[in-house]
Design goal:
heterodimer, A: alpha/beta, B: alpha+beta, seven-stranded mixed barrel, 11 strands
């Protein structure tokens, strides 16, 4: 079942004085099935942040549509957006974005508090998610008292506690050392196994190699995608780095790969994963 | 060319940081203007010679000193704020390759430019408003307005300018040192990184509660007006200490309690505000406490001076039921002080009134006794009693001149009844040259000539005015129950002093048909009486009134009291305005510094799913509480200060308590309105930053 469907998404930024127009997204289409773990890769300036902001309903597309669980985002009113975001989406940011005035516990509970959930229910969910992420013992601490990895797991807990339909992670390992990164990625894999849909934007091949499917964005279009199939993380890692190398050389010579503007579904792909 | 570059950078920095510099420059200019005005008023000869203007130099000099301290504190406050906000900016310069001495040069040009603008602006404002202020003070003194243009007084202009230049130089030196000590990485770091949740400091909290409680307790329990005067500053200091301690740690205590209550805390209405406030209080407690204290200061100054001034006529009417009080004494051949008989005095007054053309309505007699005592503790000794045991200087240090009247005379003069028992006294400290009210222990008992009297009443303004006794010793006034009590004291001092004993003073109290008309010719009238008296003394063979005489008039008192209260009111308005200004400044800087800090916090909350309206609500409740807490605290302070202040005002002869109450309420209401306007103004800046 499709939980997220993105249809020919375009975003054009106009510079302040109306002179230059910058096309950040030139028609992106893809979909994510429920329970899937998808990574989006791309270099700086490829448009992946713009894409994520639109998916998170923090920004509006110039044209095209986004359906989350069958509901079109652009049809959600301005006032309901915050509530919609709170109920359906969980965010994990590169910079953690934990509030320094809250303890870890309060940071995690904040979305539930905003949603007006009862105290007992809150505690039950907190206990569960904290156990799953292995942060039960640091709940009473403040963000400045714990390590980066713990902060990010707390941020993940905050994203998961609302039982969102989709977790959006923006470079979640970007500010972490390698050990914390692999711990966090293991957490992501675990929650994915329990059925949580995850969409992760990343630079890191290592992070992407945990996903079921990897989309490559370049110059505002989905350029390519790889399926995991039966490959292990290591195999997928290799495939991703090969693809990246190939993409780069192709980009540099500008010849050998045909650029499909549209990669929705499985058709028209230059490289396919084993199925 | 290089030098030009630094100047350009300095100038563009001022323009870029207009949010910080504009208030800094205006505040410096405003403070300088007030300082200049106050200083010039103190040294303006033309003003001190105006009717009732004798108080202006002293009072305004005190005001200038207070302003100097306030200015220094405020300038350093705004400066430290400015430097904190701009740390990152200096850090960037450093990283871009400017050495610290170059940053110092940019800083110098900035300070130089802002200093020049503020000082020229301030002196300009001062000169501009000086004339207005001198007109205002003349108006308050109800004296003739001095005409003529004397705008510029170079001496005070130079003095005021020099003081603020000195302040600017000091702040620059301070900033230069701060910059040379900063490490670039530290400068770049965000301000709030790694801030800890505040903890309740129990000792501080206890000290605060104790100090505040003690301050309030003093205010409520101090019964005697003079003791109130004496203890007032103790109470003020206690309350200031209490306010600071409680703001710093008491707010944390309450918020932590709220946080502990999970049902209350885990609610979207409360959670962001409570935790936000918890951190915010840590940074702002001192600022908020300062606002609360300044606000209390403004309110006390304005309400007391306004009520004194507006109660002036009532005070005068109460103390001067008649228009002229006149007595004279001379030393007869035996060396005994003898009073000029009342009939003679009356004759002189009538003659003088006829001469200047005013009609007398009535003349009353009233007698009093004045005796010098050596006072030790609660005992009064005649000089003879202690002559052998104490040295002359010891005796001189303990001399108190005492006046006695019967309650009947007191009632006749003031219209008030005391209902004194046979051995009860009404006591008043008439004058205390050292200003030390310890000269009179105004409660408990007093032993005179071996008889114990109970002090039943403290009297604010003693109805008998004295010039003869005002020879440098403290003067106390007493009211005794009746003629019998008076006679007992009279006989006792007669026995004690023998030849040097005092006689009863015969005094007449004259009322004129047309008080205002008498006031107009007042000076003529007194000099006329004076010459009549001299003629009389000549006629009985005594050259002048060697033992003394006094003509105490309503119009002289009016001039005196109007001068004093008018100057006080002006000072109250000036200092009140400066305090209000300081309040605005602190609030403004608080708002923008918080705006910058809260911005990041609210951006995160928005991402997590807080709606814009929820964010607005949270901001509102935080800002409202932070903002109005000082106003509420100032209100509580005023309520507790009220009993003490109203007693102190009794010493200054304000008898109508309702007047002070009205003035307090009105000034609080006006202050609240002004405060809300400031809030609306500054919160706009805050929201702009947040957005």
């Amino acid at each position: 079942m499709e939980i997220l469907k993105v249809n020919d998404l375009k975003k054009t930024y106009t510079t302040r004085f109306g002179g230059n127009q910058v096309q950040a997204l030139k028609g992106v289409s893809f979909s994510v099935d429920a329970g899937e773990y998808v990574a989006i890769m791309g270099e700086s300036g490829s448009g992946k942040t713009t894409l994520l902001n639109i998916l998170a309903a923090l920004d509006k597309p110039t044209s095209g549509s986004v359906f989350l669980d069958g509901k079109q985002l652009s049809n959600v009113g301005e006032d309901e957006l915050a509530k919609f975001r709170r109920d359906n989406l969980g965010f994990v940011f590169q910079e953690f974005n934990l509030l320094d005035t809250f303890s870890i516990k309060d940071n995690i509970l904040l979305p539930l508090v905003l949603g007006g959930i009862g105290l007992n229910e809150m505690k039950k969910r907190l206990e569960k998610v904290a156990y799953e992420l292995g942060i039960s013992d640091i709940l009473s601490k403040f963000p400045y008292e714990v390590s980066g990895g713990q902060k990010q797991r707390a941020a993940a807990a905050r994203a998961l506690i609302t039982n969102p339909k989709l977790v959006l992670a923006d470079e979640p390992t970007g500010a972490l050392d390698s050990r914390s990164s692999s711990e966090l990625l293991r957490v992501f894999s675990n929650i994915n196994k329990q059925g949580q849909t995850i969409l992760m934007v990343t630079h890191s091949t290592d992070a992407a190699s945990n996903a079921d499917r990897v989309l490559f964005i370049r110059d505002g279009v989905v350029f390519h995608q790889i399926f995991r199939g039966d490959s292990t993380n290591e195999e997928l890692y290799k495939k991703i780095s090969d693809t990246l190398t190939m993409l780069r050389t192709a980009g540099d010579t500008g010849a050998s790969i045909k650029t499909p503007g549209n990669c929705a579904g499985n058709e028209g792909l230059g490289v396919r994963g084993q199925e | 060319m290089k030098r030009g570059l630094y100047r350009k950078m300095g100038w563009s920095n001022i323009r870029k940081n207009y949010r910080f510099f504009v208030p800094r420059i205006t505040s410096e200019a405003g403070l300088l203007a007030c300082f200049y005005i106050s200083l010039t008023l103190a040294f303006d000869d033309r003003l001190s010679q105006v009717k009732g203007g004798t108080y202006i130099p002293t009072f305004m000099l005190i005001g200038t000193a207070v302003l100097a301290i306030l200015s220094a504190v405020l300038m350093f406050y705004t400066n430290s704020f400015l430097m904190k906000q701009r740390r990152a900016e200096f850090g960037v310069y450093n990283i871009l390759g400017m050495e610290k001495k170059h940053v110092g040069k940019v800083l110098f040009h900035e300070s130089f430019l802002s200093s020049i603008i503020s000082i020229l602006g301030g002196l300009g404002l001062g000169v501009l408003f000086y004339k207005l202020c001198s007109l205002l003070i003349c108006k308050l003194l109800k004296s003739k307005i001095i005409v003529g243009f004397y705008f510029i007084t170079p001496k005070t202009l130079a003095l005021a300018g020099a003081f603020f230049i000195l302040l600017d130089i000091l702040t620059f030196i301070y900033n230069r040192i701060v910059i040379s000590r900063m490490k670039p990485v530290e400068m770049l770091k965000s301000r709030s990184a790694g801030e800890k949740e505040p903890t309740v400091k129990w000792l501080l909290l206890l000290v605060g509660i104790a100090a505040l409680g003690a301050g309030y307790f003093i205010s409520i329990t101090t019964k005697s007006p003079l003791q109130a005067l004496e203890l007032f500053f103790v109470a003020v200091v206690l309350v200031i200490i209490g306010t600071y301690c409680i703001f710093v740690t008491g707010t944390t205590f309450v918020l932590k309690l709220l946080k502990k209550n999970e049902r209350y805390y885990y609610n979207k209405k409360h959670m962001p505000s409570v935790s936000g406030l918890l951190f915010r209080m840590k940074q702002n407690a001192v600022g908020l406490a300062s606002i609360a204290i300044l606000a209390t200061g403004v309110l006390v100054m304005i309400s007391t001076t306004v009520s004194l001034y507006s109660g002036l006529q009532g005070t005068l009417d109460k103390n001067y039921p008649q228009d002229l009080y006149f007595y004279a004494q001379y030393e007869n051949t035996d060396g005994v002080n003898t009073s000029v008989p009342a009939e003679e005095l009356e004759r002189m007054a009538r003659k003088a009134a006829d001469d200047v053309g005013v009609k007398i309505e009535s003349v009353e007699n009233n007698d009093y006794l004045s005796v010098s005592y050596y006072k030790e503790g609660n005992r009064l000794y005649t000089k003879n009693e202690v002559e052998n045991t104490l040295s002359k200087t010891e005796i001189m240090n303990g001399i108190v001149d005492c006046m006695f009247i019967t309650e009947a005379s007191y009632t006749a003069l003031t219209g008030e009844t005391l209902s004194l028992g046979r051995y009860e006294l009404g006591v008043s400290m008439v004058s205390s040259p050292t200003g030390n009210s310890k000269d009179a222990d105004m409660s408990g008992e007093l032993v005179i000539h071996g008889k114990t009297y109970k002090i039943a009443e403290n009297i604010g303004l003693y109805p008998v005015k004295t010039q003869i006794l005002a020879n440098g010793f403290p003067v106390m006034g007493f009211v005794v129950a009746d003629d019998e009590a008076m006679k007992e004291i009279f006989e006792a001092q007669k026995a004690g002093y023998g030849k040097y004993a005092s006689e009863m003073t015969n005094r007449i109290c004259v009322s004129f048909v047309d008080r205002e008309k008498a006031c107009k010719v007042g000076d003529e009238l007194t000099s006329e009486i004076n010459s009549e008296l001299n003629a009389y003394l000549d006629s009985i063979g005594y050259g002048d009134a060697s033992a003394g005489y006094s003509i105490d008039t309503y119009w002289e008192a009016r001039e005196e009291v109007t001068g004093m209260y008018g100057t006080l009111l002006f000072l109250g308005i000036l200092l009140g305005a400066v305090c209000l200004f300081a309040t605005v400044l602190i609030i403004y800087y608080k708002q923008i510094s918080e705006g910058y800090e809260d911005r990041d916090r609210f951006q995160i909350m928005e991402k997590i799913g807080m709606t814009t309206s929820e964010i607005k609500k949270t901001i509102n409740s935080q800002v409202l509480l932070v903002f109005f807490l000082p106003l509420i605290v100032a209100g509580i302070h005023i309520v507790f200060a009220y009993p003490m202040l109203s007693r102190m005002l009794r010493v200054l002869a304000l008898y109508k308590p309702t007047l002070f109450l009205t003035c307090s309420l009105i000034s609080y209401a006006v202050f609240a309105v002004v405060y809300i306007l400031i809030y609306l103004g500054t919160s706009r800046t805050y929201y702009k930053i947040i957005k």
